[in-house]
Design brief:
Elements (H helix, E strand, L loop, with lengths): L1 E4 L4 H12 L3 E6 L2 H13 L3 E6 L5 H15 L4 E4 L5 E2 L7 H11 L1 H17 L2 E6 L12 H20 L6 E8 L6 H4 L1 E2 L3 E3 L8 H13 L4 E4 L1 H12 L1 H15 L1 E5 L25 H28 L2
Parallel strand pairs: 1-2, 1-4, 2-3, 4-6, 5-8, 6-7, 7-10
Antiparallel strand pairs: 9-11
């Protein structure tokens, strides 16, 4: 049986469907009771058992209650998938403090609260898999997403520590998933302080690829799974040629992630869900070909410069 947080939209929604379709029992957790109820019905139609437990993962007491109810109902927890996250877009100086804090509270501390709640259960039953969905934003950065980047970088380090501390519990595994940009509604849900509509940086990967990695981690735990080769190359450049990366990332993001569609400043779903806009994907992949053609010269030039810099560094004494 699998607990999925963030189950009301995007990766979490599709993961719940996927586990249910293979006959698993799923416990669905998110803030939107309305959407969770609908997804629970869909999961049972696909052949699984489902229990919807409305939960705000930024509330540690609510996550503890989710764990207790799951164990009381089903007797165990075989896997826990941490999929809950919220997003904001704007310069750090323009992002209100409460919004920054809530992004971190949900995206980082939601997973911390889950680990604190479920690891004792895993230890007591002798097995369990904790899947933390981080991001390649845990390996690189870009402008306008300071709280999300801070949360995802921290989550990778947190997961590393958990693995080290669980060496005395060989039946318990912690897996970290690092996707690139994924076609989900999180960009539409994002708080916005740039005044323009935002979209994921292309090439955008389908949520099915991330969910396949999640299922693989539950069945055959691995330390880390990266999903999205193009963004993985960007993480490589961030590490090896950081000054060049910093120079290139701003025009790439301004040209590819900010659309010429004005929007008023708003806090998105950071503080409250919007059930009407929930879904698995948001159709961003349909626009990728044109955008990739637009940014390809900049990206290619950056990659060539990065390769040259690395080659030169190897020749120097």
């Amino acid at each position: 049986m699998v607990v999925v947080t963030g189950a009301s939209s995007g990766i979490g929604w599709l993961a719940a469907h996927t586990f249910a379709a293979r006959g698993d029992t799923v416990v669905l957790a998110a803030r939107s009771a309305q959407t969770l109820g609908e997804i629970a019905v869909e999961c049972e139609q696909r052949g699984g058992r489902a229990l919807a437990v409305p939960t705000d993962v930024s509330d540690e007491g609510a996550v503890q209650a989710l764990t207790r109810r799951t164990v009381e109902t089903f007797g165990r927890i075989d896997a826990w998938v941490n999929g809950a996250a919220v997003w904001s877009y704007g310069r750090f100086e323009d992002t209100p403090g409460p919004v920054f804090r809530q992004v971190v509270d949900t995206t980082l501390f939601g997973q911390v609260h889950a680990a604190r709640a479920v690891l004792p259960q895993f230890r007591s039953q002798g097995h369990g898999v904790l899947v933390n969905i981080s991001s390649l934003y845990g390996r690189l950065s870009s402008p306008y997403v300071a709280p999300y980047v801070a949360a995802k970088w921290a989550l990778i380090g947190f997961s590393d520590v958990l693995r080290q501390e669980l060496r005395d519990a060989p039946g318990v595994a912690v897996c970290t998933i690092l996707p690139g940009a994924v076609d989900t509604p999180i960009y539409r849900h994002a708080a916005n302080y740039v005044g323009r509509q935002v979209r994921p940086l292309p090439p955008v990967i389908p949520p099915e690829r991330v969910v396949a990695a999640v299922v693989r981690a539950v069945d055959h735990p691995r330390r880390e799974i990266v999903v999205g080769r193009a963004h993985h190359l960007a993480a490589w450049a961030h590490r090896l040629v950081p000054l060049l990366y910093d120079r290139l990332v701003v025009p790439v993001v301004n040209g590819a992630a900010l659309r010429d569609v004005p929007v008023p400043v708003h806090d998105g779903t950071v503080f409250a869900p919007d059930p009407a806009s929930n879904g698995v994907d948001d159709g961003w992949r349909r626009h990728d070909h044109r955008l990739v053609a637009t940014i390809l010269p900049t990206a290619a030039g950056g990659a060539a410069a990065a390769a040259a810099a690395v080659a030169l560094s190897r020749r120097l004494p």
